[in-house]
Design goal:
Blueprint lengths: L2 H9 L3 H4 L8 E3 L5 E3 L1 E4 L8 H10 L4 E3 L7 H13 L9 E6 L7 H12 L6 E4 L30 H13 L8 E4 L3 H10 L6 E5 L7 H10 L2 E5 L13 H10 L3 H11 L3 E5 L3 H6 L8 H14 L11 E2 L9 E2 L3
Parallel strand pairs: 3-4, 3-10, 4-5, 5-6, 6-7, 7-8, 8-9, 9-10, 11-12
Antiparallel strand pairs: 1-2
This protein binds NADPH dihydro-nicotinamide-adenine-dinucleotide phosphate and D-galacturonic acid (DGU).
C-alpha cells in the first residue's frame, strides 16, 4: 500500500479499534517501521539507591520500555539494572525499548552526549534518542547541566539553533553503524515542530510531551498525528506526588470501571493512540500501574471536560526564560528559528 495512504488510515483509525483491550505490552507503530510499547517506566527524580531496584522490579513484572535521560543523573544505576536483568536472562536486549535524551548543554556535542548515555547505560544502542528540550544551553558555563548567568537566569547558548541540533541528530541515524534506532524530540509545540519540519530530512519518530487531562495539548497531538509523529505522554499523574489522583472526575470514571485513578490516567493515553510514561520507585505502585483499560467515548468526554472547566495546569516548565510556543506559557525568548 502507498505509505502515505497507510499513514493516513492509521492516523484516522480510532484507537478503540487499534487497541481494543490495551495491555502494558501493546505496541504502537512508529514512522521508522519499528514500534514502541504503550507503557514505559519513568526514571526522572528516581533517586540513586532506588532506581536500580525499581528498574529490575519493573522488567521482572513485564515492563519493556524504560525512559531515561542524561540529565536525570541516574543512568549509571539504570545501566546496572539492565546489566543484571540481561545477565539473568529475564529479557533479551532486543525485547527492551530504551530511550535516552540529549541534554541542553550538549546541543553542539550530539555524538558526545550519546556516547556518555550509552556508556552509563552499558548499552550498544538506544531504541530512541530524543532532543530533551529545543533549548541549547552554554556548554562551557558554570555548571555542566544547569549553567547560570550571574543574575541567576539560565545560561542559554543563543549561537546555536535546535534545527542545527536536529541535523546533528539526523547524522547519528545515517552514520554507517548507527547506535540509535530512532530519533525524536521532546517538549515541542506546534510552533517549534513547524519550524523543525521545514528543515528536517527525517521526521521525528516521537514527540514526548507533558500530557494528561489537565493539559491535553490537543493541538500538538493532532499536529503530530497528521505528520506521522508518535506522541509519548509524560507526567500522567501530574508528576511529583501524583496530584491528579485526587481529581473528582478521574475518580468518577475510575469508580465506574472498578479501577484506581491511576489506571484511568494511564488508559487515557492509550485511547489517544499515545504511549505513556509512569514513574515510580515503589514496587507495589510499579505493579499497580501495569493495569490499563479501554475507556469509552463517554469517559473520554468527561476527562476532556476537566480542563475546559478548570483551565490548564502544566506541572513541568523549567525556568529557561524561553517561549517554547505553548499557548498556556507565553513570554520569554523565541528560539523557534
Ligand atoms: N521529556 C521530559 O522533559 C520529561 C519526561 N518525563 C518522563 O516521564 C516520566 C513520568 O513523569 P513524572 O514527572 O516522573 O511523573 P508521574 O506523573 O509519573 O508521577 C510520578 C509520581 O507519582 C507517584 N506514583 C506513581 N505511581 C503511583 C501510584 N500507583 N499511586 C500513587 N502514587 C504513584 C510517584 O511516587 P513514587 O515514585 O514515590 O512511588 C511520583 O511521586 C518521568 O519519570 C520521565 O521519565 C517527565 C517529565 C519531563
Ligand atoms: O525530563 C524531565 C524534565 O524535563 C527535567 O529534565 C527538567 O525539568 C530539568 O529538571 C530542568 O530543570 O530543566
Amino acid at each position: 500500500m502507498n505509505p502515505s495512504l497507510s499513514k493516513f488510515i492509521l492516523a484516522h483509525t480510532p484507537s478503540s479499534i487499534l487497541h481494543p483491550t490495551p495491555t502494558m505490552t501493546t505496541t504502537i507503530p512508529l514512522n521508522t517501521g519499528s514500534s514502541i510499547p504503550a507503557l514505559g517506566l519513568g526514571t526522572w527524580q528516581s533517586s540513586p539507591g532506588e532506581v536500580k531496584a525499581a528498574v529490575i522490579h519493573a522488567i521482572e513484572s513485564g515492563y519493556r520500555h524504560i525512559d531515561c535521560a542524561f540529565c536525570y543523573q541516574n543512568e549509571d544505576e539504570v545501566g546496572e539494572a539492565l546489566k543484571e536483568v540481561l545477565a539473568r536472562g529475564i529479557v533479551k536486549r532486543e525485547e527492551l525499548f530504551i530511550t535516552s535524551k540529549l541534554w541542553c548543554t550538549f546541543h553542539t556535542r550530539v555524538e558526545e552526549g550519546l556516547k556518555k548515555s550509552l556508556e552509563l547505560l552499558g548499552l550498544e544502542y538506544l531504541d530512541l534518542y530524543l532532543m530533551h528540550w529545543p533549548v541549547p544551553m552554554n556548554p562551557k558555563g558554570n555548571h555542566p547541566l544547569f549553567p547560570k548567568l550571574p543574575d541567576g537566569s539560565r545560561d542559554l547558548d543563543l549561537t546555536t539553533s535546535h534545527i542545527q541540533t536536529w541535523k546533528n541528530l539526523e547524522s547519528l541515524v545515517s552514520s554507517p553503524s548507527p547506535k540509535v534506532k530512532a530519533i525524536g524530540v521532546a517538549n515541542y509545540s506546534v510552533k517549534y515542530l513547524t519550524k523543525l519540519l521545514e528543515h528536517a530530512t527525517i521526521v521525528p519518530a516521537v514527540n514526548q510531551i507533558e500530557n494528561h487531562p489537565y493539559l491535553p495539548q490537543q493541538e500538538v497531538v493532532d499536529f503530530c498525528r497528521e505528520k506521522g509523529i508518535h506522541v509519548t505522554a509524560y507526567s500522567p499523574f501530574g508528576s511529583t506526588g501524583s496530584p491528579m489522583f485526587k481529581d473528582e472526575v478521574v475518580n468518577e470514571v475510575a469508580e465506574k470501571h472498578g479501577v484506581k485513578a491511576g489506571t484511568v490516567l494511564l488508559s487515557y493515553h492509550l485511547a489517544r493512540n499515545s504511549s505513556v510514561l509512569a514513574k515510580s520507585v515503589t514496587p507495589s505502585r510499579i505493579d499497580e500501574n501495569r493495569k490499563l483499560i479501554a475507556l469509552d467515548e463517554d469517559d473520554m468526554s468527561k476527562l476532556e471536560g476537566i480542563s475546559k472547566t478548570k483551565g490548564l495546569t502544566r506541572f513541568v516548565y523549567p525556568p529557561f526564560g524561553v517561549d517554547c510556543g505553548f499557548p498556556d506559557k507565553p513570554g520569554g525568548v523565541d528560539l523557534s528559528g
